[in-house]
Design a protein that fits this description.
The chain is an alpha+beta fold. It has 5 helices and 6 strands. About 7% of the residues have low confidence.
Amino acid sequence: MVGVVPLEEGLARAEDAGLDLVEVSPNASPPVCKILDYGKYRYRDQRKAREAKKRQRTFEVKEVKIRPNIDGHDYAVKMRSITKFLDYGNKVKVTLRFRGRELAHQELGAQVLERIRGELSERVRIEQLPSMDGRQMVMVVAPVQGLGHATQAVEASIAARQQATESAAPAAAEPERMPAPPEPEPAASDPEETLPTPPPDDEAPLAAAPEA
């Protein structure tokens, strides 16, 4: 840290070092500048912004509509939908709509929402308690943890695939060497039968003359 210096001196120092004089804290008094490579500074800044954008999560509010006199089968279907939305880290807005004379029996709708709340008590937090909104009763729940179990499993699978791809990249760069084919063995040949060489004519044995 150099301290407070005139602008001209700062520019001269940056020029001598072959770098740039970059203002990093313009709102400070006096402003703070650094002598650095502005191209590398911008690259690091953009990379940090990209990484922050990747880590940013956007969650939706899913709505599930039910009726006060819902039967057992439909209730099970709605509960599976709520559980699926929560597993992916989304909030769920449970809307219970009254029709006609059902509005006079709001306690039935409250019992249905309390049943849902009780079955999900260990995995959700209540962001909005059951309350009337016109002719419907609304309750909003959110997963206890920031991400649902399904979202964590998907991200873990993606990270494992990326790691496997990176580890396999150097091996793929080097072409695989095929083993040389074995040399063929010489075929076994039967030994040639050696025949006796007949003597030449001039060396042929003469028959002995009969004795008189």
